[in-house]
Amino acid sequence: MSLAGVARWSRPLGGYHLRPINSLVAGSFSSYYASVARREWRRGLGTRVRNWVHGPHWVVLTLSGKHIKAQVVNKECGTVEAEASTLQKPVVKGEVTHELPLLGYRRASVEGARRIGQVLGERARRVGIVHAQWQRPGRFHGKIRAFYEAFCASGIRVYEVKGASRTSGERDRA
Questions:
Q1: Are 156 and 131 in contact (CB under 8 A)?
Q2: Which of 39, 125, 134, 171 is deepest in the core (most CB within 10 A)?
Q3: Signal peptide span per the entry (predicted)?
Q4: 160, 169 Cβ separation under 8 angstroms
């Protein structure tokens, strides 16, 4: 029994397609899959360009109910290049920025986030960091926005990366 001309399901990268078997066996097999691979590569090109790497330095911001901590991390070496936190006494007392001290609940406030952004930007410039990457969270207001604006005002170029470290359940819909 000859299977020539009988349709069979084939699974390329783009999905299931019903194709005649002799077209798969003939010479068009490799060219068909090559065109599908090129199409899939082109679809992902926008994501790769959006997530283009602008150096090894990343800004990490950690917020809790009582404190704010920010670091500039070198992801290639795995080291912390600069950090600022409301747990550090010079930052809280205002010795670094020459402002009033942050007392009690004001440590984790918008004012505290702004001060942490200023101090981290100054310390990062002192170390020699010119630009860094930062993944903007979904909600960009309040403490996060105050930190970001103060950090950018310190003279460091910040590149925003969209969807770089999301979990498998989330997708970049932009």
A1: yes
A2: 134
A3: none
A4: no
Cα–Cα nearest to 119, from 166, 79, 76, 86: 86
Residue intervals in the chain for CATH 3.30.420.100: 57-160
Residue 58's beta-bridge partner residues?
A: 73, 133
Q: In terms of Cα–Cα distance, which of 157, 128, 126, 134 is closest to 71? A: 134
For 9, 162, 167, the CA distances from 136, given in Å and listed in that order, are 43, 7, 15
CATH class held by domain 57-160: alpha beta
Q: Is 18 helix (H, G, I), strand (E, B) or coil?
A: strand
Q: E strands, 35-149, where? A: 57-63, 68-74, 79-85, 131-134
Residue 14 tokens read as 């783009």
Token pair recorded at residue 109: 């406030």
- Give, as one character, the DSSP assignment of residue 36: H
pLDDT tens, residue by residue, 12-27: 555 555 555 444 444 5
**Which pTM value belongs to this model?**
0.63
Distance, in Å, from the CA atom of 88 to the CA atom of 90, rounded to the nearest integer, reads: 6
Task: Provide the angle, in degrees to the nearest 10, between the axes of the packed helices 143-153 and 110-127.
Answer: 30
